[in-house]
Amino acid sequence: MSDWFFKSWKKYYNTTYRVLAFIFAIALVTYLLPKTAKFKYEYSKGLPWPHKTLIAPFDFPVYKSQAELNREKDSLLNSFRPYFVLDTSIETKQIAKFTSFFDNTIANLETKYPELFKHKKNKKVKRFYYQEIKDDIIYSLKQVYFKGVIELPDEYLNKPPTFELNLIKGNIVEPSGLSEFLTLKSAYQQIKINTLNGLGNMSEKMFREAQAFLSDLQLNRFILPNINFDKNRTEIEKENLLKNISLTSGKVLKGQRIIDTGEIVDGKTEKILDSLKKEYEARLGTTTGMYIILLAQTLMVTLFFIIIYLFLFYFRKDVYHNILSVVFILIMVVFMISTVAGIYSLGKIPLFIIPFAILPIVVRIFFDSRLAFFLYIITIIISAFFAGNSFLFVLLQIPAGIVAIFSLFIMVRRSQLVRAALFIFITYSLFYTVIALWQEGDIRKIDPRYFGMFAINSALILLAYPLIDIFERTFRFLSDVTLMELSDTNHPLLRMLAEKAPGTFQHSIQVANLAQEVAYKINANPMLVRAGAMYHDIGKTVSPIFFTENQAAGFNPHTELDFEESARIIISHVEDGVKLARKENLPEQIIDFIRTHHGTTKTKFFFNSYMNENPDAKPEKGMFSYPGPTPFTKETAILMMADSIEAASKSMKHYTDDEIDKLVEGIITSQLKENQFINAPITFKEITQAKEILKQKLKNIYHARIQYPKLKKKKKNKEEKNNNQ
Length: 725
What we know:
mainly alpha; Hypothetical protein af1432; 3 domains; four-stranded mixed β-sheet; 28 helices; about 5% strand
C-alpha cells in the first residue's frame, strides 16, 4: 500500500504542487479584495450613459465630491485661529537670572568701561551709569514680557501681521493679532534701544562704551518666548471644526429619475451617480450579503486563475511543466495585487503611483511578450476592483503595459530601463490628457497632480532592475543581461577555451554566429542560443589535441589508438564539459546546450571505420554513441544543426553553392531520421527556414573571391635607356 502511495505521489507531485500553488494564490487574492458589493453600472464623465434609464431605487443623500470637501476644509482652515498660551513664569525667571548674572559680572568690567563707572552728575544720590543701565534693562524686560514674546511654529512663519490667533491667559481665551506681539529679534532690539535712550545725553565715547557693554551682556540669553504654541489644543479645536462639515449637499428620493439612456454624464450627474454607488455598496455590504459577496469574489478570482492555468497548459507548456516558473508567475500576479491592496487600505495614496509595468517588464525578460501581456491584463482587471473609476484605470494601464513590453523587447543595458520608464511616463500623460479633454472639454480642468503621480510611477519602474537580479538567482532564470555577460569572450571559461583549444574557440564563435541568425529567423531566443554555442564544446579543453580543429599539421594522436578508445575520448568531451560548467556555476540552461549538442548521434568516423574492419561485429550499445539527451528546446535544436554543419563545412573540398546545399540538406535530414528533434518544439517549417539561413550564411562565408591581377613591370625601350644614360 505504501509503495503504491509513494509511486502515485512521485507521478503526480508536480501536478499537486502546481494546483496547490494556484489554490493558495486564489485564496490570497480573494482575501485582499475589498469586501464590498460592486456597483453594476460603469460610467465616465463626459460620455453618454450607456445603460437604461436609471431611477433611484431608494432614498439616498448626495455626497459632496472630494474637491468640494477640500474647498470647504481649506476655507475653514484659512479662518481658523490657532491657540497660544501665556506663560507668566518666564518673566520672573528671566529677570532673576539677569540680575544674578549682572551682579556677578559687573566687578570684572570696571577697567574695560571706565566711563560707565563714573557717577552721574546733578544727582543728589550718587549712582553709576552702569546701575542706570541695569535698571533700564530690567524695566525693558518687564515691558517686553508684558507685551508678549511669541515663537511661531514653521507652519505659521509666513503669516502676515494681520493674522489672528487665540491667546490663553489662565482660563480666558482672547483673540489677538500677530502684530501685537514681539519676536525674539524685535524684543532684543527694543530692550537695547530703550536702554540706550534711558541714559539721556552722553558723550560719543560713553555711547560707544554703552553699546559695547550691552553686547557683552548678551541680553538675548534672557529673552525667551512667553507665548507658546499650544499644539494639542489647536489640533483638538481644528478637528472639532472639521467635524462640523456636512458631507452631503442634498437628497435624491426613491423613484426620482437620475439619468436617461444616451444622456451625457456631466459633473452634477456624476456626483449623484457616485453617491448612489457609495450607498448601494454600503447597503449590500451588510452581514447578510457578505457571504454572497465573498462567494462571488472567490468564484471570480478562481475563473481568472483558471484562465491563467489553461493559457500555460495550451500555449506555454515549457512554463507549465516547470514548477518554479509557475510559482514565479503566481508570485508576480499576487505581489502586484497585494501592493494595490496595501495602497488602497491607506486611503490617501492614489493607485496611479503603483508601477504596474514592472510585471510585464520582468515577465518579458524571463519568458516572452505574449505571456507578459496576458498576465498583465489579468492583473489589471483584478486590480481595477480597487479603483474608484475602473474604466479610467484600465484605459490608462493597458497602453502603459504595451509600451513597457515594446520598449524592452531585449534588455541588455541599464539605460534601456530608464528609456522605458520615460516612454511609460509619456504614455500615461498623453492618454490622461486626451481622456481629460474628452470628458471636460476644457484644458484648464486637467488635473496636474496626475502628472506627478505618473512621474512617481515611472521612477519606481527602475526597481525592476534589482528585482530581475533577485528573481534570477531565486528561480534560476536567465535574463538578457546575464546572457550578454556570459557571451563576453573575456569570461574566464572562454578565455581558457581560447588559450587551451584555440581551434575549438574559433569553431564556437562561428557556430554562435550561425545559430544566432537562425534564432532570429524562427523566433527563438538569439541571446540564449549564442551563449549556449559559446560554451557547448568547453569540455574539449580537457584533451584539446584529440580534436581535429586543435591539431597541428601532420600530427593526429588517434593513429596510435584503436577506434573504440578514440570514440570514448571524443564522446567524453560532453561529460567533461558538463562537469566543468557545473564547477564554474554556469546556469543550467547553458549546461543543457553542452549535454544535447550531439544528442544521441554516433561518432560516425570511428564507427564506420570500426565496422569496415569488423563487418560481422556487434559493438556494445553506447560504444560509439553520445549519451544524449536529444535537444528539447528550439534553441538546443538550432545549436545541433549549426554545430554539425559548421564542423562538416571545414572538410569540404569545393565550396560551390550546390555542395553547400547538399551538405546542409544531408546533415539535417540525417538528424531528422535519427529522431534528434523529436523532443524539441520546432516545426518542419522552422527547420526548413533554418536550412535556408545556414545555406546562405555558409555561402557568404565561403564565397569565391576575385583573384586580383598582378601588376606587370613596364619594359623600357632602348631610346628611353639611352636618354636615361
